[in-house]
Fold each of these.
Amino acid sequence: MERSERFQLFLDELMSATAVASIEEAKLLLEQTLVRIENEHSGVPDNPDGWQNDGRMYPPKEDRRRSISNEVVAVYDSRGHRISFGHNGSIRIEIRRGLGKGTIVLDKPGQDGKTLP
Amino acid sequence: MTFQTFLSLLEPLRAEYPEAEFEVSEPAAPSGFWILSIDLPDGFSVEVEWKRPLGFGIAAGPNLAFGEGVHEVFANAPDAAARVAHLVATRTPTSADVPVSIAQLRKLRGRMQKEVAEALGISKSGLSQIETSAAMGTVQIDTLQKLIESLGGRLKISATFPDGMERRVSVGH
């Protein structure tokens, strides 16, 4: 499956997953969803310690957490995208570079039904 | 050498392209990635990420794919800055699939001929001959394998066919 298709599948499955209630749970949900989809559809073995592009999408690790993070929202920068996790379990993914800059591609509410402000 | 050193080397680029947007993203922890993003009005974007001891990782183009790794790696700030300047000037998208020569690969890994030759137990001129023969396509596979391993990597050889089949070919261990 092409990367763009896998990315859309990831967004769809993440959006439809049961909402969670904390930053940690939200980050884990994103990780597990992406790893499962890439395992099933990318054809590329998981190499979480790699750095160079191998054709597979990887969830953000702690070394991508940004200094603007706080107890209310944890912000991570991935390739061309910003991923924010809210303390209520909400998740937002937005394009932060290049064509489509500023576009929010996923805005998942937390368990309390609220999205990030 | 810090990320700030790298940023200072890009000052001429900022002056040459005042319309470009330069944004630095700071890590939450000292051991995290520093990220520089350069956006041009035509949609072309360059991202540079850095952390010790990995070096500088670069990806460039109009579309930067979610969660993918960097395309090119540079060990030092001057080489990374020069590459960024070239990418901005030419609007050339990077690709991890672009082949490089063995000599280029050694430089991308930040290694000098002398130290790699010593690791292999050969002379510097001997290594130079290997790099030349590799460029000409006459190097032996086991020689190439040892050289790649001396750079900390692993040699992978694959075969592709017109019907779309692609398979890695087993060579040695």
Amino acid sequence: MAQLIINHDQCIQCGLCVAQCPFSAMSMDSGKVETNAACKMCRICVRNCPVGAIKIEEEKTIEIDKTQWNDLLVYVEHDNETIHPVSYELIGKALELAKPVKMKVAALMAGRNIKDLAEELLYSGVDRVYLYDDEALEVFRVDTFANVFEDCIREMKPSVCLVGATTTGRSLAPRVAVRFQTGLTADCTSLEMRENTDLVQIRPAFGGNIMAKIINTKCRPQFATVRYKVMDAPEMLKEKQGVILERPVSEEMKKSGIEILKVEKKAKVSSIEEAEILVVAGSAIKDEKGMEMIQEFASLLNASVAVTRPMVEKGLGHVNQQIGLSGRTVKPKLIITCGVSGAIQFTAGMKDSGLIVAINTDPNAPIFELAHYAVVDDIYALIPQLIQKMKGEQK
Amino acid sequence: MRIVVCIKQVPDTQKVKVDPETGVLIRNGIDTKMNPYDLYALETALRIKEKTGAELHVISMGPDAAKAVLVEAMALGADDAWLMSDRRFAGADVLATSFTLAQGIKTIGDVDLILCGKQTTDGDTAQVGPAIGEVLNIPHVSWVRKLIEADEKGLTVEQEMMDSVAHVRLNYPCLLTVEKGIFEPGLPSYLKMKEARKKEIHVLNMDKCDCRDAKRYGLSGSPTQVEKIFEPTYDLSSVRLDKTTEENAQALFEKFVELKVIEGGK
């Protein structure tokens, strides 16, 4: 197996490797450098040792025959009525990845009475849909769905399996990946295909402060879960293309240790800290009518409404919606401030937001200093126009 | 009845940086702590223990220093602690980690229930729990937000799904990953910490495992490799929109479409 070899005769005990190791995996005990179980084999010590005293002994791996594993398989998530948009995004990405290596894209669907949904997929550009339609698959149970997934992979032998990084996807994918003794990269935000069909997967770690580039060169299929709203859905075709392959669900596949007693639809969360998108109403909004406009704008964006402190004082907002030093701290992916000047007491509570769009009439408003998009305009003129455009898109 | 809680030692902060010259994670003065999500798994186990009189074990994989989190877990009420520690476990990805932990759980023996936090704060994958379930060939439920019932035979739990909540029943042996907030975790008292430090921690290396095939552990047993780590770059250049309202609205609208934030839009 691969392991670090430290040549203690060459080692000058400079301590550089101990100091640089990102995983605290090296220590110098009584003048001798040792590694421990925290080592991630990142090879930083090997590269940086000034006297070349650290070497890595690579194991000779048996290369698998990658030509035996072809095409990409997308796991399609749905609720027996509608297909989850992340699945189309995965198909879009898969089609893009497939092109340079001349592969095709297949989809896997499991559920009950979902032939119509499978038909819909034929407008997305997939080559074939593996359809498992059975009463036992009406609700998601991780064991039965893993059995179906396994069955499909055994037949198809895909090079890549893509699964949405949703609650079900992140529960299902690890089980199937373990079943095939292969690697799985969670929550990818970027994917690229190499000529040799190795998939380059980029994912965030440490709460998004670090990005890691991950590859799986020795196993197939390559499993990745991909975040929702990161990839682009494909252009829908005018005519159907591809075939539906109906596959039987055996008694063995239906066996489950999980009993679903009931499923309840969830009420929408309203806490501003949990919102991915926030629309903030500031002092430029004078009355209830203005708040109604903000509310309409927010609902078209599927956003929650937050306010500044003066708005709470004026009774136009609730304290639970207040951002700032005396309110809540938020970090949504997108925040749109409407008529907020941007006092430090406010910005302290939102400066780490992903994308900041600020709308204000004053071209010198402090909020513009941290905005990615500084819109110098009157909210009472701009927002109604935006609402019009967004409503047009909905139709 | 026997419960095992899987815990991990993680850096105390997520604000880590990469040295732009060496491509190395800068970890100067970063302390470690128990993965915060694991505290909820441990608290859940303590509640079940209270009800059923179960025996509670904690397990971790890591270097000797990881004993600190096992001591903390014992101070909080775990009966016994196990550390999977071996140079040959180094470089493990999800597959090798779940395999190694499963080996430890097999060594503990006769385990009815395994509990994990929903994810760690360093890796953020949320995969190791379900993967352990698969290695041990037992069912699992992820994202459990409420324990409805725990009896001699099994559990009834509430599972958090994207747009819904499912009530799920499963019999032992099984595995759960629990959401933050399922119960409020307690704090270890000074006295309990002092007592816990005196307790023995079982250290298992590969030779003490059922499977002694080195190819299944550490880097050798890991299909995925990290090629590179880097800090994300954001486009910080500010765009100023100060044309006519019509033009400003159009530019913002196009941005919203690009960001896929408009309901019903593509």
